[in-house]
């Protein structure tokens, strides 16, 4: 065995252990339970965008007391959900 083969073998072993550690930590992260929801009345982070169908004004909602809030009213009508914000 020459020196080049030993270096390739050690490099392959290091890459294997690195990928193994990353894979194990990803699997651990997926198996942990979700955190409990906040108590009622506390604001939750959300990201939704609404548009008034009458005048066209847009509203970006970032906090709400529940995860799926009712649409706000504008021009005496419920606003339309445009899209969830990523």
Average pLDDT, all residues:
87
Number of strands: 5
Strand order of the largest sheet: 2-1-5
SSE string:
HEEEEE
Helix-strand makeup class: alpha+beta
Distance between the termini: 54 Å
State the assembly state of the protein chains: single chain
Q: Say what the CATH topology of the largest domain is.
A: Rubrerythrin, domain 2
In terms of DSSP E residues, the strand content is 25-35%
Radius of gyration: 25 Å
Number of discrete helical segments:
1
What general form does the structure show?
elongated
Q: What's the CATH first level of the largest domain?
A: Mainly Beta
CATH architectural grouping of the largest domain: Single Sheet
Word description of this protein:
With 86 residues, the chain is α+β, with helices and mostly antiparallel strands. It folds into 2 domains: 32 residues; 41 residues, Rubrerythrin, domain 2, CATH 2.20.28. It contains 1 helix and 5 strands. The strands form 2 sheets. The chain has a 3-stranded antiparallel beta sheet, with no helix packed on it. A two-stranded antiparallel sheet has the order 3-4. A hairpin with a 6-residue loop joins strand 1 and strand 2. The longest helix is centred in the N-terminal third of the chain and has 29 residues. The model has no long low-confidence stretch (mean pLDDT 87).
Which descriptors apply to this entry?
86 residues, alpha+beta, Rubrerythrin, domain 2, 2 domains, 3-stranded antiparallel beta sheet, two-stranded antiparallel ribbon, 1 helix, 34% helix
